[in-house]
Design goal:
The structure is a homodimer. By secondary structure, chain A is mainly α. Helix content of chain A is 72%, strand content 0%. Chains A and B meet through helix 7, helix 8, helix 9 and helix 10 of A and helix 7, helix 8, helix 9 and helix 10 of B. Chain A binds a DNA duplex through helix 3.
Chain lengths: 197, 197
DNA sequence: TTGCTTACTTACTAGTAAGTAAGTAGCTTT
DNA sequence: AAAGCTACTTACTTACTAGTAAGTAAGCAA
């Protein structure tokens, strides 16, 4: 869940992946090409094909890495040891950072729009990523309600889906309008969850 | 705010617009071409250029028509005469229909992901559309709270932005996962607004 | 009936897309 | 020193992109 790594000081394979992730989040999958990457890395497009034979391989690698990041972050002692409200807060901070520092949306928001044009393998990876993310957040929300520190109606999974959906959309708002409106939406979600109904 | 018209029984200009809207909502702006449209309408790509010289013109026309639809719908007597909760309900129904009948997202969700790759004119139109939509919903929410029939915390504009964001995201969820999860998110939003806190 | 307009088609340009095959420089291994 | 591997480059193909210019058939208008 950390922010994308800088595109330097890594081996070529990783630098390609970093840059591709960057382009994916800022332009979408269909609007970046091997040429974009090659130019930025001062290489020829064919060199990208050497590391990632097809664009599909590159796309799958990007999503899969994000899934690994999620799992790693989620299982970090400094995260698992937090209380549910703190876990939620830490999670929201990731989105807040995205909106401020880069003009990037989250993976779900970036890929859902062009979902029907994506290779099957990418569609599957994205589904997995979203399911795991929803399940984790649902477990946080369930624990928070049990401890009477998070407050909401309905099933934890429904609420988790709603929150993720809203956060994804909030980042899109930040891009189309100003960042401030995005922050207001995030604050709205936070307040509603933390204050007793 | 009505669903897109069928692609037949109209003049060519409108049929192009209808089909382009369809393709935009289902595949994104960068993933459809004049060829797609031409093939479907059994014409040559150059014929599309005759009606819409550039893809930008086509894109702007799509968004602008949607803005006109919004204004028309919003000012319809049968809509203005409704109570705020009924207005909200009628509005949500539009999104519900989108999720069920087509696998289409809303304009905002479709275009936000590739926003940075869009022509300036399209970016501007999309901003206008979203501002007007947010302002209308905010006025409904404000009136509903004044009449004690809609319940929420925070500023009406913030809440409106949050609701729109969530609805946009919900349609994207419907596409990536099943339609049912989308319906659950919409229900969650409805319940929270209609039940006193 | 001549001329203009509408709504196209045909034929083209220039640019870009993903992807491939063959070659090569530099390093390592034996 | 020969062989092989890694990480590329060069040169190419095929397909598609937006867009344009010129031509044309049908209808209407004077």
């Amino acid at each position: 869940m950390q922010a994308p790594a800088p595109a330097t000081a890594f081996d070529t394979r990783t630098r390609i992946l970093n840059l591709a992730e960057d382009l994916l989040l800022s332009r979408g999958f269909n609007a970046f090409s091997y040429q974009h990457i090659a130019k930025e890395l001062a290489m020829k497009p064919a060199a990208i094909h050497y590391h990632y034979p097809g664009k599909e391989d590159l796309g799958v690698a990007i999503i899969r890495r994000q899934l690994m990041r999620l799992r790693k972050w989620r299982d970090l002692p400094r995260v698992t040891e937090l209380t549910p409200p703190e876990q939620f807060e830490a999670f929201v901070d990731v989105y807040r950072g995205r909106a401020v520092t880069q003009r990037q949306v989250c993976f779900f928001g970036a890929l859902a729009a062009e979902f029907q044009t994506l290779p099957e393998a990418m569609q599957q990876e994205l589904r997995t990523l979203n399911v795991e993310l929803t399940e984790w957040l649902a477990s946080v929300l369930a624990a928070g309600r049990a401890a009477n520190t998070l407050h909401y109606k309905g099933h934890p999974v429904s609420k988790a889906a709603q929150v993720l959906t809203t956060l994804a959309g909030a980042l899109q708002v930040a891009r189309v309008h100003d960042e401030q409106q995005c922050q207001r939406i995030i604050e709205q979600v936070r307040t509603e969850l933390r204050e007793p109904v």
